[in-house]
TrEMBL record:
The lineage of its organism: Bacteria, Bacillati, Chloroflexota, Ktedonobacteria, Thermogemmatisporales. PANTHER family: NUCLEAR INHIBITOR OF PROTEIN PHOSPHATASE-1 (PTHR23308). CDD domains: FHA (cd00060). It comes from Thermogemmatispora tikiterensis. It comes from the Bacteria. Residues 210-260 form the FHA domain. This is FHA domain-containing protein.
Length: 284
């Protein structure tokens, strides 16, 4: 099915590309995951299709990166894709768009792109349509009938690769037949003791995702030029563990004295270093 853009949206997208293109060519910068997220959101909004009684959002996104950026994102690709999927689902809910499946995101290396540039092609794939690509065909499912809480639990299921508790899928849904088990336990108490050149402070982990980096919208801001704008993330998992992830940073994370760690299951007493900041993790 072809997508249909609003003429004003097409014009705005054209003007933005007209301005961004030459600027990016003259002043190339390091591509960060948040920039890809913004472009994915724009691709969704620019390619919304007006159905009979609802606005249908594209559910397949091909992300083309330079070879250098593709290699840099590859180690944390699964984590990034999950985050971008969540962003798109949240945007669809805010704009009252209908998603016929959980968004499918595929990364490609494109030798014609310079580092720092990204091209995204968005497509709406019907549930009845089969592309021959298992990454698309296996994801297609009806989501319109699910509540916001059920959607959140389904996203958690995709992250863990396991059946998750408390999902009661409506009869007739393509997700029906899942086992229903007990609700997941609440997030345990956990905190970080952060040692910086100026002293020490305590950060209590009170939400499932904690972002660490140099950019000011991170939860923990590390004021060090060696640290990437979006450097690392601590994420509470459905299995009750806290995971530390490197988000494709330049200088990496040192965990318990081991440099270059890409992901690590945090245990009470673990230490990790990002730039000039030392972190000591504890939990109950």
């Amino acid at each position: 099915m072809k997508t249909r853009q609003n003429p004003l949206s097409r014009f705005e997208a054209f003007m933005q590309r007209l301005i961004e293109g030459p600027f990016a060519f003259l002043f190339p910068s390091r591509l960060e995951p948040v920039e890809v997220a913004r472009k994915l959101e724009r691709a969704m909004e620019d390619n919304v299709f007006q159905g009979v009684d609802r606005l249908l959002a594209p559910n397949v996104y091909d992300i083309y990166l330079s070879i250098k950026d593709h290699q840099r994102f590859s180690p944390s690709q699964a984590i990034l894709v999950r985050e971008w999927q969540e962003d798109l689902v949240n945007l669809a809910r805010q704009r009252h768009y209908t998603l016929r499946s959980n968004p499918v995101l595929r990364l490609h290396a494109d030798s014609s792109l310079r580092p720092g540039l990204v091209r995204i092609e968005a497509e709406l794939v019907d549930r009845q349509h089969r592309t021959g690509d298992p990454s698309v065909d296996g994801e297609v499912m009806e989501t319109q009938a699910l509540s916001a809480e059920q959607l959140a639990q389904l996203r958690a299921q995709l992250q863990s690769g396991q059946l998750l508790p408390g999902i009661d899928v409506p009869a007739g849904s393509s997700m029906s037949g899942l086992a229903t088990v007990r609700p997941a336990p609440p997030m345990p108490q956990a905190w970080l003791t952060i040692r910086v050149p100026q002293g020490q402070q305590i950060y209590r982990i009170e939400k499932p995702v904690v972002n660490i980096g140099r950019q000011l919208n991170n939860d923990i801001i590390v004021e060090d030029k060696r640290v990437s704008r979006y450097h690392a993330q601590i994420k509470y998992q459905p299995n009750g563990q806290f995971m530390l992830f490197d988000l494709g940073s330049t200088n990496g994370i040192t965990v318990n004295g081991m440099p270059g760690v890409r992901q690590h299951t945090l245990r009470s007493g673990d230490r990790f270093t990002i730039g000039s900041y030392d972190f000591y993790f504890e939990r109950r």
